[in-house]
Amino acid sequence: MAFWKPGTEKPSFVEDEEGGIVLMSNNLSSSSSSSYGYANIEKQRQRLPVYKYRTEILYLVENHATTIIVGETGSGKTTQIPQFLKEAGWAEGGRVIACTQPRRLAVQSVSARVAEEMGVNLGDEVGYTIRFEDHTTSGVTSVKFLTDGVLIREMMEDPLLTKYSVIMVDEAHERSISTDILLGLLKKIQRRRPELRLIISSATIEAKAMFNFFNTSKNRQAPEGSTQGPKLEPAILSVEGRGFSVKIHYVEEPVSDYIRSVVSTILLINEREPPGDVLVFLTGQDDIETSIKLLAEEAHSNQKNSSGLLPLPLYSGLSRAEQELIFTPTPRGKRKVILSTNIAETSLTLEGVVYVIDSGFSKQKFYNPISDIESLVVAPISKASARQRSGRAGRVRPGKCYRLYTEDYFLKQMPGEGIPEMQRSNLVSTVIQLKALGIDNILGFDWPSPPSPQAMIRALEVLYSLQILDDDAKLTSPTGFQVAELPLDPMISKMILASNELGCSDEIITIAAVLSIQSVWVIARGVQKEQDEAKLRFAAAEGDHITFLNVYKGFLESKKSSQWCYKNFLNYQSMKKVVEIRDQLKRIARRLGITLKSCEGDIDAVRKAVTAGFFANACRLEPHSNGVFKTIRGSEEVYIHPSSVLFRVNPKWVVYQSIVSTERQYMRNVVTINPSWLTEAAPHFYQNRQNNMSL
Fold first, then answer.
1. What does each C-alpha distance from 493 to 153, 178, 537, 605 come to in angstroms?
2. What is the per-residue pLDDT across 328-353, written as a single tens digit (0 to 9) for each?
3. Which of 33, 202, 435, 683 is the most buried (most CB within 10 A)?
4. String of DSSP letters for 345-380
5. β-pair partners for 543
6. How do the domains of the chain map onto residue ranges?
7. d(CA 470, CA 477)
8. Whole-prediction pTM value?
9. Are strands 653-661 and 66-71 parallel, antiparallel or unpaired?
10. Rounded mean pLDDT of the chain?
């Protein structure tokens, strides 16, 4: 962190949503030990809305087992409350204060900010842990930021989380699967550890629902012979935010094409409104690319309306350099137009945004237990999301939000809250996590929002067919326990275990590392032909998984060169991450007794191992069809995704990793198989489908 040096020109700054300072001057001292710097940071902390509630928060945490804090985005709750707790002595005697976040990006940025405010190195007193990355020091770290999922995994070694004195679950309104599992588990832990304090914090959470979930005062007495502990009835505290007013505009009539409406609204703002950046919420990369293309066409044909516009995409598959463009100051006379997915709703602070355009849609995961297909679909957002989006316009000065739906729709039809992820997801990973923690009665588990019994039964069926659960729905030994120990999707874990017997663990661990990140390819605009040619250099006739092996081999042969990645349209940061994850998986595999062995080019062994993990995702090409596949279970119509090397190849039999739904259901990460491998891998799973298995 750089601080202003007395005697030099005073820097201008704006504050981010969590009280961070974005400095706009280059005349900065690099001396982070400046006493003025710390005094200045202390002043910034005191100006945050949450600061004036410091005493109340500490009083409630002292006297109540659970404290629910409803704080608007920008109140400073995420960065300040862990520090209040440390200052009040909750980290003394080797105890640790934990703060969980649903998103990895938030864990990293918030922990870095808190370390700066406390004047310590990140990884010492303040640290963070995300999957495949641990920046903490045992015995030293006293304030720890981590994802919900990582804290759940810690329970496998320490079921009562004994080292933690206070656990703060932040951004609980996102209601991710991991957040809901964590809330249910923490409620159980509190019964055994009445001294554990919980803080449930969120921007838009339904405080009453959380109060009812954690209110065990009616049916639970303090343990006999125990001294008077904290009150079992939760406390609720509301903390105001620190935003400027935002004027909301609605359309008079519903729009038929929200992408064209987005473009015309951007041009209208540019023509009529004073300077200020524009943040647009769209559903995904395709919408964003289309909007940028339409803006470029408009700039070509009508330079007056579009002069000075700088369209920038924001979604998770971008390269680091493209992401950094978002955060650079807007040049004089220009107006940044940031076209984003819902990643900008809560996870990132974008300075300079004065205008927000809300399409009213986002991509959400939905699982159909009947067809057994989990897909990403475009769905209307909730009122809670709409408020988060509009709030982004009031960070620096009063702003405006243009909602591309009618006021009547917002008031009367838009749902108040989104559907919790738990109720619209495949539950295979959820079931195995709970089984690994010794929770056998999963249907009777105390959920904040219970999942559907059909989805739960489907998950049990898949885990049984993977031989992870036995006839009594308990973890098998050793397979079930080994799968539970790998921090991966159970299907990928089973693929790794199968590779040990098939003699291709070296290759499969590489494939598992690639499947653990979003994409190794850079999504570049306007160079589709060149990108396709680059992909062809690595393409394997057997499919995407074998192609990933070729990519990884090429990366190592280039001596992990960033230039080589650039030339081949590969994301250098993603490839470095693949190497890191692979090293971690190798260590875990050795611990589980898996010998690292290469199949020396026996691609059938690799494909058999993939089939052993993903046999439930098998599909067959429909005869005389134009690329139509049918899933073996469910007979759903699916297609190979255009990003796959098997697109337009149409092999007879394939297995896929995941499905993406747009106007069609597309299979991603596809590999060709021999159908006889399915009955070898899972005879009981396919025993009733023998008639369909003929070539």
1. 15, 19, 29, 16
2. 888 888 999 999 988 777 656 677 89
3. 202
4. HHT---TTEEEEEE-SEEEEEEEETTTTEEEEEEEE
5. 671
6. 3-47, 49-220+228-239, 246-419, 486-684
7. 9
8. 0.78
9. unpaired
10. 85
